[in-house]
Amino acid sequence: MRYFSTRNDRLNCSAAQAIAMGIAPDGGLFVPETVPKVDRAFLERLCSLNYRARAAEIMRLYLEDFDPGELDGFVTAAYGDNFDDPAVAPTRFLAADTALLELWHGPTCAFKDMALQMLPRLLTASLRKTGEQRQVCILVATSGDTGKAALEGFRDVAGTRIFVFYPDGGVSRIQRLQMVTQAGENVGVCAVRGNFDDAQTGVKKIFGDAAFAQELTGRGWYLSSANSINWGRLLPQIAYYFSAYCDCVNAGRVKPGEKLVFCVPTGNFGNILAGWFAREMGLPVSRFVCASNANNVLTDFIRTGVYDRNRPFHTTISPSMDILVSSNLERLLYYMTGDAATGGFMAKLNAEGRYALDADTRERVQAVFSAGCCGDGATREAISRVFREKGYLMDTHTAVAWQVLEDYRRETGDKSQAVVVSTASPFKFAADVLDALGKTAGEDPLRALSDASGLPVPAPLRGLDARPVRFPAVADKAEMRAVVGRFLE
Ligand SMILES: *Cc1c(COP(=O)(O)O)cnc(C)c1O
């Protein structure tokens, strides 16, 4: 199967090349030329498999230049005892009509592990297949979750190094401790004086610096990205939509072939887009509900067809969804309008921060997606209500989706079986979750949340305070390139 750029479908390459390059040379994102279809028999077979085997079956359909044994090895390693639940991505049935898909049992307690435990394996194999002679250094600017998940994914992976920049004072205490105490011989972390945008702009500048790239090539290195524009990060996410469906069939919640609704807490549109691919492949899904916090660019887009990033940025208690430009939307636009129109929309977004869909395209989007948003107050109430009524503790991102699903059902009367995609452990956002329960966090929010909920603190978050700080450095924006240069000496 060939892969195209979303901005030019004459530009095509193999899966391994798409994963090795990350982003297309014309600035577009790589997409498969066709979406493979599965039938009822495939789905029924999937239902009898465990998570690892389900993931291998799905990924194999897109990776024809990888051999099946290779993929079996990858899923075994990526989704093994680094996950604290043998089901890897378990589905919990909380109400007669609602299930929760828990995607946070990996080493960093957030859903990014589902992709970032797999990406390093796909990437290093892709480099071998494309004959790349240089070693790869992954460069990340993070507002919290991605940096840690990428560090865990790439640590001690042969032929790679990884360097993460985070805004000094701009991530939570737990997130900072997770990164500055990171283990591994090929990792580096540095704070940047400034906010997330400063760190992100600095990293983009390094990526765009041709002279620096040439200097690194001379030393046998090239730079790549671990964010969700890489196909190798999106692909592993398609698998868990299939897995959740199988769990619902196995639990008798739906009959084989009956349609589900998924409600997804959304930022960069990567997670929910993976669901859209699953539906295109033939997974019985009637609708995706796109859930946002106060940064509700996507709610407006799906409801009106106008994407407009010219609006205030809000800092919320669901920070991983504090995003105004959702990069993966470009892939959806490609399938809905083609390469020429997509290139045009992206150029408008760049120049004016805004574009508007024509009526046909808007209707195509609305045929599959609904959208809603909810503020911090309603998020806290959802956490407290669900804990009180069902004894289940949600993190702030999952709570946004829970609330938006309730609103969606009230507005539409849709009574289908629904799955809320749960993207983080409540312990990862302990202080805000405690606040929602009406408790004070005190000195040790993890301990306090454990006491309030009766749940154990997840092992990866335990004892963070006691671990040695390996990466105390703070740099100015202007020094970022030099920091990377020294790291690769
Ligand atoms: C990254 C993240 C999201 C948003 O996912 P996208 O793929 O960017 O839409 C939601 N919740 C949590 C906890 C995350 O870390």
Question: Could you explain the architecture of this structure?
Answer:
By secondary structure, this protein is α/β, with parallel strands linked by helices. The protein contains 21 helices and 16 strands. It is globular. Strand 4 (91-95) and strand 5 form a beta hairpin. Helix 1 (15-21) packs across helix 6 (119-130), helix 3 crosses helix 11 (231-250) and helix 17 packs across helix 18. The protein binds pyridoxal-5'-phosphate (PLP). Pyridoxal-5'-phosphate binds at residues 110-112, 145, 228, 265-271, 320-321, 397, 423-424. Pyridoxal-5'-phosphate is lined by residues 110-112, 145, 228, 265-271, 320-321, 397, 423-424.
Keywords:
489 residues; alpha/beta; Rossmann fold; 21 helices
Bulk shape: globular
Which CATH first-tier class of the domain at 89-108 and 232-454 would you pick?
Alpha Beta
What is the subunit organization of this protein?
Answer: single chain
Q: Strand arrangement, largest sheet?
A: 4-5-15-10-11-14
Please compute the radius of gyration using only Cα atoms. 21 Å
Structural class estimated from helices and strands: alpha/beta
Q: Helical region count?
A: 21
Cα-to-Cα separation, first versus last residue: 38 Å
Poorly predicted runs of 5 or more residues: none
